[in-house]
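Hey team,

Filing this mostly as a record. A colleague (T.K.) asked me to run one chain through the structure pipeline before their review meeting, and I want the input and output archived in the tracker in case anyone asks later how it was produced. No errors, nothing strange. Just documentation.

Input sequence:
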Amino acid sequence: MELMNQIIARAKADMQRIVLPEGTEERTLKAADKLIADKVAHITLIGNPAEIMALAEKHGLQNIGNAIIVDPKNHERKEEYANLLFELRKKKGMTEEQAAKQVEDPLFLAALMIKSGHADGEVAGAQNTTGNVLRAAFQIVKTTPGVSVVSGAFLMFLPNKNYGENGIMVFADCAVLPNPNAEELAQIAVSTGHTTRTLAGFEPRIAMLSFSTKGSAKHEMVDKVVEATRIAKEMDSSLKIDGELQADAAIVPAVGMSKAPGSEIAGNANVLVFPSLETGNITYKLVQRLAGAEAVGPILQGIAAPINDLSRGCSVEDIYKMVAITANQAIGMKK
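Output structure:
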């Protein structure tokens, strides 16, 4: 996978500080050991130091001693982070006592480290639910200026190189927001365009998908996509975006020319934005299984700093790749 190798190489060339809050989780530790050995990122593990080192010895991991290990119950910045958490959440009713307790939660601690500038990104979810990972991110790091929604994109590596960008496509939203309105769908499109530039390294050609192409059907669901396309173009005029397009009109040149003549996207899209979470999630899984595509993600977008969520069934390799992706997001945000 040439693109994944490029993502890893970019991470190695500009090493970022990535925090892994599930520091005592076996797959996380094994991934951290390999990441440190390969010099992909500067790794911080959150967890009891004695337990982490005992697990490292048990599994024969030679590099964990080169990670920064933060004990959530006892570290030099605990009071500083508790004060920051209290200031951020006091208007929501949080007391100083509650902040002092919650700062011991590894997910909140990781988010506070990012908020304080002591880490550049976070990867979690091997043990925790998406809801718990996102709750800390929303409350502490918040969303990117101008964006109110978080969404999840997938890098899709297709065996058939005729589609997308030599077989690479980006799908969104496949992970987070069930039924976005037109404004939210526009934000998802723009965020996905930026993700594509940062990670895939090619210029996005974004198709806003529907069951209609250029007015072939009339329905309020189509109207939403038409309006989202208009808003997205206003949000970022540098992005190439068109809609509404049916899936075949978006990716098959002959169909695109027939159904949407004159469109610079139709038949040539490398980014697909779905009108709802159900359509995006169903489609990426079908493409993965029926077409034999590799799906890498979800890559969370719209958060003010890169925080990514893993499947609880993830592999060591999945964690390794997601840390490299998170590092690339951090590099892109700094630029």
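Quick notes for T.K.: The first helix runs from residue 2 to 13. The mean pLDDT is 94.
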